[in-house]
Design a protein that fits this description.
Blueprint (H helix, E strand, L loop, with lengths): L2 H10 E2 L4 E4 L2 E3 L3 H8 L17 H9 L18 H7 L1
Antiparallel strand pairs: 1-2, 2-3
């Protein structure tokens, strides 16, 4: 990872437009960019269809090979996969 380049990109990201504002113009993230950053594969069939919170941990495990941990006692089960968790397990 080139930390200097990553820092430069973070400084130039504008969340209101979802673009990087660079001296040469504007640039947006592509699916390929996200695959390189996250290390997740993008080839194969897309995951689409009805979204349901039932058995979501099991379905996540079937799709990527790792099931998210159960929530801590007293915490709500949000039924979502965080990008930080994906980076940690991949």
């Amino acid at each position: 990872v080139n930390h200097a380049a990553l820092t430069a990109l973070v400084d130039r990201w504008r969340p209101e437009t979802h673009l990087f504002h660079l001296p040469c113009g504007e640039m947006t993230m592509t699916l390929e960019d996200m695959a390189m950053i996250s290390g997740l594969p993008i080839n194969g069939q897309a995951i689409t269809g009805r979204v349901s919170a039932v058995n979501w941990r099991e379905r996540t495990g079937n799709l990527i090979g790792v099931e998210p941990d159960l929530p801590l006692p007293g915490k709500a089960d949000t039924s979502k996969v965080r990008h930080s968790w994906l980076k940690q397990v991949r």
